[in-house]
Amino acid sequence: MRRLLSVLEFYLVGYRRTWRGSVFGSFLLPVLYVVGFGFGVGHFVDLGGRLGPVRYLDYLVPGILAATAVQVAFGESAWPVLSRFLWIRTYHAMVAAPLRIIDILGGSLLFVLLRLVLTTVVFLLVTTAFGAVHSAWALAVPVVCALLGLAIAAPVYALSAQVDTDSYFPLLGRFVIIPMGLFSGVYFPIAALPRAVRWLAYASPLWHAVDLCRAATLRGVDLPWPTVLGHLAYLGAWAGLGFWLAMRAFQRRLAI
Amino acid sequence: MLVTAFGTGPQGRLDASVRRSGAVTRRNLAALRSAYWLVVISGLVEPFLYLFSIGIGVGKLVGTLPLPDGRQVPYAAFVAPSMLASSAMFGALSESTFNFFGKMKFMRLYDGVLATPVRPMEIAFGELLWAMARGAIYSAAFLIVMVLLGLTRPGWALAAYPATLLVGFAFGGLGMGLSTYMRSWQDFDLMGTAQLALFLFSGTFAPVSSYPFALRLLVEATPLYHAVELLRGLTTGSLHPVLLGHAAYLVVMAGVGLIVAGRRMARQLLK
Fold first, then answer.
1. Angstrom distance (rounded) from CA A119 to CA A145
2. How far A70 CA lies from chain B's nearest CA (Å)?
3. Structural domain boundaries of chain B?
């Protein structure tokens, strides 16, 4: 455990220098989305009244929260991981120290988790100030977002540990991450989607997390417990499978 | 007599200049590799994703929105020209800032080019042409889909097409002018944020008439607003003399950007 924490400490020391830049991507941009859509488009959605008694802003905030977790997780596990293998060789240096592979991977993912929780908590505080949070269950949102982040980060870690060029990442971003953000019920209920696309939404981890977060921040949305457990299990499965694949990929690439 | 006039007169000088700009454009074409094609195609897909998600999905929540002339249109028809203008902006800016900056500062490409008879202004013009060629393909595809989805009529789509080229030209010129001021890659993060703010607040997803007054004034000074209004006026067929004003704004922006880029490149590269 101490070895794992020393890996985490390594990333934290680095983050002390770079946290200002991350405020931009993980905080300012989502706030712009909330203001632009929640207030701008929300005005017209609320006029139409098609969401029932729920304000569009309140509907949108939990979705953007979860979508931000996906962005942060993807951003932390694509280029940074590849560069630690290929360009700055941090992982090779770590293997030469008395660290096991599990410490290297675990400490690194622990840092991603910490960033996810931090981003989500700050975002939650700001949106509470906007009056968009209506239930004490919101306290569970950082946990859900952290799990969602892990469900994205772990498989991407596994990919980044196997490739030799970064040209996969823009494609992954454009064909997987962005469509996931657009069609997983963040901006509108997926009931509006054609049946085939709806199944893609069900398959995406983001939809499960959005459903949980929305139930947690809105008043009077009751998810039955089996559904909650099902969502959590699905996210956990992605995280677990991803971790296993990442572990194997790390072992292979860092074999001495 | 004719030959000398053709070779050295103002007309001849212009022809040669255009030819040299064309050579800069053709170099980019020759340097295309297979991986880059995938990136080009993936840029084609993105505006469609937004159109289907926001235009159609959120459109079911919104219903219809008013145009400046008071006519109500379905939300998808309101948002589609915004996506068209934004994708022209993103395409032109990525080519004219990120790639242009890399070629100028890191690949040192233009040091080599300037050793030939090509002049800085001709590089700026050639690169701009390249940025527009990419945008021209994207816009054509998007307009065709708009017609197929019934979001505009074929005639209006044809009328809007040259306007999309103007939008690409304007943002390409702006981008090139800006990138001569960029110091490092970090400056591009700042630009990315600015681009996103424009994307969200240029009357793209909701009419500016619904914005608070101060924000509205600010938005009306920024370029994407004019591009969106111009294209929306054309694709929805609500013509108005104000459209000419929007077009003039874009023409001026392209011109200023190009002149600034040409001058500053001359100073930075011809030492």
1. 10
2. 18
3. 34-269
